[in-house]
Amino acid sequence: MAEVIFYEKPGCINNRKQKRLLQEAGHSLDARNLLSAQWSPDSLRPFLGTEVSGWINKSHPDLKAGKLALDLKDPEAVLAQLCADPLLIRRPLMVVSGQCLQGFDAGQIDQLIGLKRLPDEDIETCPKSHTLDACKAESA
User: Fold this and answer.
1) Taking the chain, what is the end-to-end CA distance rounded to the nearest angstrom?
2) How far apart are CA 94 and CA 106, in angstroms?
3) Active-site annotation holds for 135
4) Which of 46, 76, 92, 136 is deepest in the core (most CB within 10 A)?
5) Does residue 104 register a pLDDT over 60?
6) What is the model's pLDDT at position 31?
7) What is the mean predicted confidence (pLDDT) over 95-101?
8) Is it the case that residue 28 has pLDDT exceeding 70?
9) Could you tell me the domains of the chain?
10) CA 14 distance to own-chain centroid
């Protein structure tokens, strides 16, 4: 079975479900706090895809409230903002079999290391995304 480094936001409902799927499949997890990791553009960039909008946690309270704007046409500026405020990073970040991954694409993970079962619900979108206060309380 695989060793998975799993950067999560502690207390995140979906990260808990994602870790459970990995553990049920027999994989060993090294769970780390995404928010307290010391991110730099060089350390974060390997996890990110080519589409800048896919880097972003769209449930970030300040984004949802319109208090924060990101210039998606300036990837370096967005990367700097992600490093400065890791809550902006779409999660989880994982290192699986030497590959850096962002988000939880169950099909991709199943092909890469195997899962016993695929989720029967959306475990990427924050279930509290409709409630700003819940996300603010969770991020505190």
Assistant:
1) 35
2) 12
3) no
4) 92
5) yes
6) 98
7) 93
8) yes
9) 3-139 (3.40.30.10)
10) 10
Of the candidates 12, 83, 126, 135, the residue annotated as catalytic is: 12
Tell me the β-bridge partners of 29. Answer: 4
Q: Are 29 and 19 in contact (CB under 8 A)?
A: yes
How far apart are the C-alpha atoms of 94 and 104, rounded to whole Å? Answer: 9
User: Would you place residue 128 in the very low, low, confident or very high pLDDT band (cuts 50, 70, 90)?
Assistant: low
pLDDT tens for 42-72 read 999 999 999 999 999 999 999 999 999 999 9
Angstrom CA distances, 98 to 55, 70, 92, 94, 102, stand at 20, 30, 16, 10, 13
Local structure of residue 79 (DSSP, 8 states)? H
Structure tokens at 99: 């590959």
